[in-house]
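Could someone model oxa(dethia)-CoA with this protein?
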Amino acid sequence: MSRAMILGTGRGVPAGILTNYDLEKMVDTSDEWITTRTGIKERRKAVAGEETSYLAAEAGRDALSDAGLGVDDLDMIIVATVTADMIMPSCACLVQKHLGAHGCFAFDVNAACSGFLYACSIAEKYIRADSSQKILVVGAETMSSRVDWQDRNTCVIFGDGAGAVVLGGSVDDRGFVAEKMYSDGGLYELLYIDNAQSMNTDLQNPDYDGSYVRMAGREVFKHAVRAMAQAVDEVLVKAGVSPEALTLVIPHQANIRIVNKLRTTLGLSSEKVYVNVDKYGNTSAASIPLALAEASREGRLQPGDYVLFCAFGGGFTWGAQLVRW
Ligand code: UT7
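Reply:
Sure, complex below.
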């Protein structure tokens, strides 16, 4: 059985930039607080026409072009998102429509900030079963649509964007080497987005106060560092690869302090950990594929390098994946 490998990467981000200085005019915050507590300087904010499926399709086209493939080569499209344009159809079906892709199937994965890893985990199993398949995996979000713009605890953190990869069969030892994925629904109340109020009055939530991101930041922070470090350790042990052998770690871009804690726990130098949270904020499921696409274009990865992804998000969900580039 051949491994699944990454054949191309892509990105799609809204044009509009929202800086910390813009946020100073909207809520009681400061560039100094946001920069020191999160590392974020600016984030992208979508406008009409830049819905999640549009950004996802942009990233998908970019990844297909990078892979030298066309839409007709695709067997499957998976979109990881918690901000799909509609409840039905899935965002992946809308991406299929935007791309004009036929003869494949498409569905969404909801695992919040870990969604891209979950989606890759599914896709790579399909490719192990049939290495001729080509699968588009996208992480895409318009978190701006679910942020309470009066809540300084959350509105300064999140951003919009999309990243994508095309997966196909490997002919050598490159590709997905090992993974460790987890969730713990028991802790969901620390980070969640309520659905819209039910149309069935019997099922309506009397405490409903909007379909916004709700986050107990400090608690999430502690869990995120501990859980990601553990998953990374487990993956490296499973693969028999030492931290020193890693060329690049691409962690979920939630907060520079989480990234730095993870980096020191693993004993890695700063050059080995990719950071773009300063430009995009926390883009949830989009953060890892967006960072990967940028790292790849910057020439940070060469064939045979070990690159490690790790993520943590609502659910809770978390995990780590090791890829030979
Ligand atoms: O992607 C999924 C996973 N999500 C995460 O990983 C997010 C994890 N959490 C975090 O990144 C951090 O907890 C935050 C950046 C969200 C918050 O940083 P913190 O250092 O944990 O701050 P805090 O929530 O403990 O708040 C400290 C103070 C509070 O004031 P008091 O109570 O000490 O007077 C907050 O009200 O900072 C205040 N504060 C702000 N001040 C200025 C909270 N948000 C802001 C703000 N501007 N935007």
